[in-house]
Amino acid sequence: MSIPTPPPSAESGKRSRRKEARPGELLDAALDLFVEKGFAATRVEEVAARAGVSKGTLFLYFPSKLELFKAVVRHNIAGRFDEWKLEMQAFEGSSSELLHYCFFVWWERIGSTKASGITKLILSEAGNFPEVASFYRKEVIDAGQELIRQILRRGMDSGEFRKVDLDYAIYIVLAPMIFLMTWRHSIGMCVPDELELTPEEYIRLQVDNMLHGLCACQKPSSPPPTF
Amino acid sequence: MSIPTPPPSAESGKRSRRKEARPGELLDAALDLFVEKGFAATRVEEVAARAGVSKGTLFLYFPSKLELFKAVVRHNIAGRFDEWKLEMQAFEGSSSELLHYCFFVWWERIGSTKASGITKLILSEAGNFPEVASFYRKEVIDAGQELIRQILRRGMDSGEFRKVDLDYAIYIVLAPMIFLMTWRHSIGMCVPDELELTPEEYIRLQVDNMLHGLCACQKPSSPPPTF
Amino acid sequence: MSIPTPPPSAESGKRSRRKEARPGELLDAALDLFVEKGFAATRVEEVAARAGVSKGTLFLYFPSKLELFKAVVRHNIAGRFDEWKLEMQAFEGSSSELLHYCFFVWWERIGSTKASGITKLILSEAGNFPEVASFYRKEVIDAGQELIRQILRRGMDSGEFRKVDLDYAIYIVLAPMIFLMTWRHSIGMCVPDELELTPEEYIRLQVDNMLHGLCACQKPSSPPPTF
Amino acid sequence: MSIPTPPPSAESGKRSRRKEARPGELLDAALDLFVEKGFAATRVEEVAARAGVSKGTLFLYFPSKLELFKAVVRHNIAGRFDEWKLEMQAFEGSSSELLHYCFFVWWERIGSTKASGITKLILSEAGNFPEVASFYRKEVIDAGQELIRQILRRGMDSGEFRKVDLDYAIYIVLAPMIFLMTWRHSIGMCVPDELELTPEEYIRLQVDNMLHGLCACQKPSSPPPTF
DNA sequence: CATGAATGAGCTTTCATTCAT
DNA sequence: AATGAATGAAAGCTCATTCAT
């Protein structure tokens, strides 16, 4: 009315910051809920509510629930692998130590964070959204497997690791990680603290055994039996 | 084709024979669809159609979709562990061989069959049906873990395996199994034959490495570093 | 097998008696359930079960649920009015006494029996099945009203009762009856014995007041006010 | 037709005005249909359609069909009794006149309006929804009975009425009312104008007889006979 | 941009009715 | 005649999506 010009910097600044933050808040809320309840059981209204906006607003930013889901996946796989790769190449210790290092870094940055929920989510919904799954496989899994492959090759090249078929050996490293993420987001949530198992100790033992095996004896000279 | 009339004797009592077969047919159909699409995305009408009956018929045998789900889980975990336990106790080879043996038996009886889909299903839906998940944990997971525990203890008692914390070590054995089931029913379905990896070879290498480790060197005397 | 001829009279007699009793048993079961739960909330399977036959058998005797309903109504209004009429014509006491008498006879034969449920049922379902309702009105209500009309006329002719418009006066007698049946089969069932009101005392007081009115004073000479 | 643009000012806020009107419109539609067809035979889609909205909209305001039913009952018994009580206490005529007055007021405000359908509805559905019935009994019936009780006590205290057992006498007043409501919403709808009976004349005669009785003779000195 | 009332397709579940045995 | 397994048309309810404000 009679107020000539409202201070444009303060108000509009706060508002536009809010506005630009919207998609991110929605993605965070959606991540939480998708991980917690699955795609089908998550209602868009809940997502909107948790992000503090109305249902209509969500559809302003994402044209459908499925697109929101895709965006959540895409948003949470920001190329973490590049920096990781660099760290690995700069690593100066033994390959055993590198393996240890990578496991704990993975735990810190992925395994223990919300990002782990994404993996569980994808594995759960892969059947319903193959395109999302194969997108994830290409963008995330393959990059991770490549990283693992490099670590193993490094160890084998230096003579520290035995020679094994890399295409299969990567799963020796991958399996304990995927298992831990899957477990903690499903069955693990049912009986939380019964035995007080800690992920850290789980990882320590997995890596230790991955390197040295269960056998107390010397390295095998004969191939194992087949049934 | 040229057979004009199907043997009428076999047809007599067709209806009553079907009646006894119905629950099984429905459970099989439901297993397929639940595993393929998840609980929520599976429509009961689809289940009925795949079992060759109408929607209403399904509800003649199962009072609700959730009860159908529970029945599927229950039906597919019929006490397999008892015979398994006996086989294991009768086993006369080394503990390494026993571990090998168990893995391949597991693959034959569970891993490669539809039963593996159940595990994937449970892990996916655990968040939505905690009661089902904790039922499964008690009935299946715990029994499996006990079996693994016995194998490891056998090896440790005989001096064949190193001494490790059993509560964690069981996951050394469990993780590759769960991972394989999860993987094949999700991401693994997206890129089927790309690299021609076979589950058998996966298992062989996992067990081999589980026993002997990646390290070419002698057994460790010093604890691994922590980061 | 080798038994030449089973006694046909005993066995087949029992069976055919059974067979002929079927519709009646079904009608009884249906009456109970329709009265108790209403038409819509009664499942034909329940009716069959209570009658001790299968669902299919019911449809052998009654082509549809609606026809069953109609049959129930028809079956339960057997011309009781004829004998009643005779009793009334033979009655030798005063008209007041006749009114009393009729009320208590009605209570004994209708009000306190399952037959009262029919009336309540018809009143409840009249909106859904007008044809049933108007059939009931013609066959039952009108006959009852005619009976009441005769009683009142008898009293007026003898000078025992005041002159009143018979078309309306019949409701003075009908209302307490219908009300009692309706009440006992609905609201009355919620708070059964709170005050220990007995139908007999209810009837006694209704008839008494119907005859003598609430006023302690003499009969009115002036018409009542209108608002 | 020739009006090109409807006045925009009146249209502004149309949606929000409707929002406030919706529950009332739905309750009105539901009242009509429940009374007309009963609870079970009324489909929520019909209710919605009659209120001019879609099925989903109804569930925006009422979480289930049963809650809608309860709301209909609750909405139509808004404390009418308070004002009524005051009117009654302020009444200055004789108790006979008061009784007359109350009957006609009841007819004007309840009996002849849609509210009377509620009573019929409750009586019909009492068996299926005991909680609703007993809620209604407490909130409505009991309040009504209390009112009747006061009128009768007033007459008895002043010596205008004979002494009668109040617990039973209230039904002398209640029965003609309940009967009329039940009748008009059931059987009465089948043969609408056959005899041109008017509710007003029905009430007039009921009250008149309630006060003075059928007997042309003096007040009774001997108790009536029992059979 | 943001809202949230409104929509209606779609799903689970019920149950009168049919019909092969 | 009797059975009861099978059917499928409804009905209640949910929720992603739209759109007037």
Written account of the structure:
Chains A, B, C, D: It holds the Pfam family TetR_C_11. Chains A, B, C, D: Residues 20-80 form the HTH tetR-type domain. Chains A, B, C, D: InterPro entries: Homeodomain-like_sf, HTH-type_TetR-like_transc_reg, HTH_TetR, Tet_transcr_reg_TetR-rel_C_sf, TetR_C. Chains A, B, C, D: Keywords: DNA-binding, Transcription, Transcription regulation. Chains A, B, C, D: This is DNA-binding transcriptional regulator, AcrR family. The structure is a homotetramer of 227-residue chains. The first copy, chain A, has helices at residues 8-37, 44-51, 55-61, 65-75, 80-90, 95-111, 115-125, 130-157, 166-184, 199-212. With 227 residues, chain A is mainly α. In chain A, helix 6 (95-111) packs antiparallel against helix 10 and helix 8 (130-157) crosses helix 9 (166-184). The first copy, chain A, folds into 2 domains: 15-75, Homeodomain-like (Arc Repressor Mutant, subunit A), CATH 1.10.10; 80-212, Tetracycline Repressor, domain 2, CATH 1.10.357. Chain A is 69% helix and 0% strand. The longest helix of chain A is centred in the first third of the chain and has 30 residues, at 8-37. Chain A is elongated and about 65 Å long. At the C-D interface, helix 6, helix 7, helix 8, helix 9 and helix 10 of C face helix 2, helix 7, helix 8, helix 9 and helix 10 of D. Chain B binds a DNA duplex (21 and 21 nucleotides) through helix 2 and helix 4.
